[in-house]
Amino acid sequence: MSVRSGTLSRSCRSMVSYLSTGVNLLREIDMADDVERFRQALDLGVLQTIDAIRAIVAGSHPGLQEGVKWNAPSFMFGDVDLITLGLERSGGVRVVLHRGAKVKALEGFRFDDPDALARWPSPDRGVVVFRDHVDVAQRADALSNLCSRWIAATT
Fold this sequence. Notes:
Blueprint: E1 3-4, E2 7-8, H1 10-40, H2 44-58, E3 64-69, E4 72-77, E5 80-87, E6 93-97, E7 119-122, E8 125-130, H3 133-138, H4 140-154
Antiparallel strand pairs: 1-2, 3-4, 4-5, 5-6, 6-8, 7-8
């Protein structure tokens, strides 16, 4: 490896890029395995609800990647989780819109929910709860719109 002015040679940069691609691919495979393990533990009704929500969220932005966070499917853009699903103790599935694990300043951040689909415990954290896959189907367009706008506002 040669170092010129503190930078790697072209061949070293190519090797780093190649290795990074391999690591990212392995990470995606691990995340897909985690999601599949999560799905296998669900009963049919909850699985249908989760899968309906996953399809809507995944279709809301082409750059999203799916993994598992807080023991449930989560969608990230780059390295920042933005939309995380969860099981409700009382039944149903929740969708949490957030700006990642680290608290971010609220100054200058604003998000509107014209359909009032979510409950907003804070200006940058929205929660939508679905009873079942029928409820998801009835509010699918509103959820897709909410997710698309959330990703645009937070990335």
